[in-house]
From TrEMBL:
Its EC number is 2.4.2.2. It comes from Lacticaseibacillus saniviri JCM 17471 = DSM 24301. The keyword Glycosyltransferase applies. Keywords: Glycosyltransferase, Transferase. This is Pyrimidine-nucleoside phosphorylase. Belongs to the thymidine/pyrimidine-nucleoside phosphorylase family. InterPro entries: Glycosyl_Trfase_fam3, Glycosyl_Trfase_fam3_N_dom, Glycosyl_Trfase_fam3_N_dom_sf, Nuc_phospho_transferase, PYNP-like_C_sf, PYNP_C, Pyrmidine_PPas_bac/euk, Pyrmidine_PPase_CS.
């Protein structure tokens, strides 16, 4: 291991054999954390070649179970988002694409810090179970073309251990380490194709377009080397997606999208990502045709019906679709007002995510319990004119005094007299 650390420290490329040896021996405890930490720091500073980062992803992938979905006919397609605030897209997207015949074996995550997680959101539906056995998961994707579950403990254990080590050694923010970590888990889920939603902006992991582009390229490159056809969209996170942040609030917004209503940005992104998935799944010959198919399935209720099916299949109460009031509701609703007139020229997206976390809707620490009812409903987004005293956002809380959080939400908004340029929803597409 000392030779490998020195090699990487000096900027050389590790061979496949060396990478596999290192991961095998780390998982079996033959390599101690302090040596792996030094290796991670060397990778952080010197990066990895395209083939090297793919080999790292494959070595971590093969440290655990790899699902085989070959028994399910058709091209299986999944979506992965690098995480944002108000990003509820997976929830309307999975049933929409499944309603058009593409099998969706979706393995999702939980929220941490300022970002939410699909599994937490789904758990705000009474009874919804994200912890299915492998057989239940495969059977549902085969029978009804969709399931959204948590990764089993046996998938990519090397990544779990390395990620925990990165967290405490200042080596999280490394593109080859992030890309290989994400891909080891995604490939383990047995999908044939992947669409990545790489977020860019002040609410995202990647704050600049340059970094987001590098991450998108790394993900697509590893996907290709694994024969998993991949496309990445760089999408905007300089403001939250849609108008809700918080678990049950985001489910209600997702239901609105599936009813062919809801905020335009959530609808547009759902349709654009669906179109990429339909083309990868060979259910549409072009993106234009795919967009038309997705719009039809939202309009005629097929996607909504498929969501009811998903809820039913995973033990949830499908009545929430017709009556979202059955979702957990917060006790108090408090308005945050605009301190002056002008235009909303900036939103500190990260701060809004943190505000929801402080209300109890997100986790400061892994495994913390959540209050699924709380969150924010935004009344103003980037570029909107406001008068003094207008409501910027409503806080949904289960505590009476939210004055400190209300001040944070107010400060997260920058109001100025000049009309701002609002960034496009989709910055670019990388294949
Ligand atoms: N998500 C992951 O799964 N891994 C990382 O390294 C970062 C985000």
């Amino acid at each position: 291991m000392v030779d490998l650390i020195t090699k990487k420290r000096d900027g050389q490329t590790l061979t496949q054999e060396e990478i596999e040896w290192m991961i095998d021996n780390y998982v079996s405890d033959a390599i101690p954390d302090y040596q792996m930490s030094a290796m991670l720091m060397a990778i952080y500073f010197n990066g990895m070649e395209d083939t090297e980062q793919a080999q790292l992803a494959f070595a971590m992938l093969h440290s655990g179970d790899v699902l085989n979905l070959d028994q399910i006919p058709g091209i299986k397609v999944d979506k992965h988002s690098t995480g944002g605030v108000g990003d509820k897209i997976s929830i309307p997207l999975a049933p929409l694409v499944a309603s058009l015949g593409v099998p969706i074996p979706m393995i999702s995550g939980r929220g941490l810090g300022h970002t939410g997680g699909t599994l937490d959101k789904l758990e705000s539906i009474p009874g919804f179970n994200v912890n299915l056995s492998e057989k239940e998961f495969v059977d549902l994707v085969q029978e009804h073309g969709e399931a959204i579950v948590s990764a089993s403990g046996d998938m990519a254990p090397a990544d779990r251990r390395i990620y925990a080590l990165r967290d405490v050694t200042g080596t999280v923010e490394s593109i080859p380490l992030i890309a290989s970590s994400i891909m080891s888990k995604k490939i383990a889920s047995g999908t044939n194709a992947l669409v990545f939603d790489v977020k860019v902006g002040n609410g995202a992991f990647m704050k600049t377009e340059e970094d987001a582009t590098k991450l998108a390229e790394a993900l697509v490159s590893i996907g290709k080397q694994a024969n998993v056809n991949s496309v990445a969209l760089l999408t905007d996170m300089s403001q939250p997606l849609g108008i809700t942040i918080g678990n049950s609030l985001e489910i209600a917004e997702s239901i609105a999208i599936l009813r062919n209503q809801g905020p335009k940005d959530v609808r547009d992104l759902t349709i654009k990502l669906a179109a990429q998935m339909l083309v990868l799944g060979q259910k549409a010959p072009s993106l234009e045709v795919a967009i038309g198919l997705a719009e039809d399935a939202l309009r005629d209720g097929r996607a909504l019906k498929k969501f009811k099916q998903l809820i039913q299949d995973q033990g949830g109460d499908p009545a929430v679709v017709d009556n979202p009031k059955l979702l957990p509701q917060a006790q108090y609703k408090i308005a945050v007002k605009a301190p002056r007139a002008g235009y909303v020229v900036g939103i500190d997206t990260n701060a809004l995510g943190v505000a929801v976390m402080q209300l109890g809707g997100g986790r400061a620490k892994k495994d913390a319990a959540l209050d699924l009812a709380v969150g924010l409903v935004l009344h103003k987004k980037l570029g909107t004119p406001v008068s003094e005293g207008d409501t910027l956002a409503m806080i949904h809380a289960n505590q009476e005094d939210v004055s400190a959080i209300a001040a944070q939400v107010q400060q997260a908004y920058t109001i100025d007299s000049n009309v701002p340029v609002v960034p496009p929803l989709i910055h670019k597409v990388i294949r």
